[in-house]
Specification:
By secondary structure, this protein is of the alpha+beta class. The chain has a single domain, classed as Beta-Lactamase (2-Layer Sandwich). Helix 1 crosses helix 4. The longest helix is centred in the N-terminal third of the chain and has 17 residues.
């Protein structure tokens, strides 16, 4: 039996270019500024390597590493970090995620898709996780169409 192509995760694509990373960061920063939220925005490429790290003025210093690990988690697993947050919040078998190293189970990390392929990911930290996700979403949408 063949897997249903619509349920398969997207394929990895070529690494995001610096130009596209800057476009995503600019859109994410605009959303953060519109809400007066100090944020750190990290962009990693499809291999999980840091392409761009942007810390807005007055963002807490702890957000530097959190934003980057959110982006890495999103690209390594090709899914939003909210999936992991929800699994942990659900308890039971989802608590197994807490034993995994090198991932973040906090909303605010999203894969970046271009042409249906994962070219990288964005991770945002600085406010509540739902606000981080709102800013990350603005950055991801900047690469669509």
């Amino acid at each position: 039996m063949q897997p249903n192509p619509s349920t398969l995760p997207p394929k990895y694509g070529a690494p995001i270019s610096l130009e596209f990373a800057k476009r995503a960061v600019a859109a994410a920063e605009a959303e953060a500024l519109a809400n007066q939220w100090p944020m750190t925005i990290a962009i990693v490429d499809s291999g999980g390597h840091l392409v761009l790290l942007h810390r807005m003025d007055q963002t807490n210093l702890g957000s530097l590493s959190v934003a980057q690990i959110k982006a890495e988690t999103a690209v390594f697993f090709k899914r939003p970090t909210k999936v992991f947050e929800d699994a942990v919040a659900g308890g039971g078998r989802g608590l197994r995620l807490l034993s995994m190293d090198g991932h973040c189970a906090i909303e605010g990390g999203l894969p970046l898709l271009v042409g249906g392929e994962v070219v990288g990911a964005i991770g945002v930290s600085g406010m509540q996780s739902t606000e981080d996700a709102q800013v990350a979403s603005a950055g991801a949408k900047a690469l669509q169409g």
